[in-house]
Amino acid sequence: GVTTCLRFPGQLNSDLRKIAVNMVPFPRLHFFMVGFAPLTSRGAHSFRAVTVPELTQQMFDPKNMMAASDFRNGRYLTCSAIFRGKLAMKEVEDQMRNVQSKNSSYFVEWIPNNVQTALCSIPPRGL
């Protein structure tokens, strides 16, 4: 989740304030939109490994957002993607670069390096 970097050791130890301040230069534009992937119920058991491209696609799906919104009606100022589990950081960064280049019209161009990735090696419980 969003607080993963606070609770577990990882390559990026951060907090929500630092993410907001470092990624968006204007305080009036600090609006968090949280998306979760894979989004499953507590009783559901998935025995299939989910790939980084699938996770990334699900992360931006409006059905997986915790607020009712559709990114097609606006633009992302920045994006912070926090992955958990035994994943290769290179694969994560390559996939996020791929998402940003394919969907460049949904990201503002006036904030350079507006995609931040973090990887926590401790997988979510049950996955």
TrEMBL record:
Segment forming the signal sequence: none
Gene3D superfamilies given in the database record: Tubulin/FtsZ, C-terminal domain (3.30.1330.20), Tubulin/FtsZ, GTPase domain (3.40.50.1440)
Tubulin/FtsZ 2-layer sandwich domain residues: 12-127
Superkingdom of the source species: Eukaryota
A GO molecular-function annotation: GTP binding
InterPro entries (UniProt xref): Beta_tubulin, Tub_FtsZ_C, Tubulin, Tubulin/FtsZ-like_C, Tubulin/FtsZ_2-layer-sand-dom, Tubulin/FtsZ_GTPase_sf
Record keywords: Cytoplasm, Cytoskeleton, GTP-binding, Microtubule, Nucleotide-binding
GO biological process: mitotic sister chromatid segregation; mitotic spindle organization; supramolecular fiber organization
Family from the record: Belongs to the tubulin family.
Quaternary organization: Dimer of alpha and beta chains. A typical microtubule is a hollow water-filled tube with an outer diameter of 25 nm and an inner diameter of 15 nM. Alpha-beta heterodimers associate head-to-tail to form protofilaments running lengthwise along the microtubule wall with the beta-tubulin subunit facing the microtubule plus end conferring a structural polarity. Microtubules usually have 13 protofilaments but different protofilament numbers can be found in some organisms and specialized cells.
Name assigned to this protein: Beta-tubulin
Source organism per UniProt: Scedosporium dehoogii
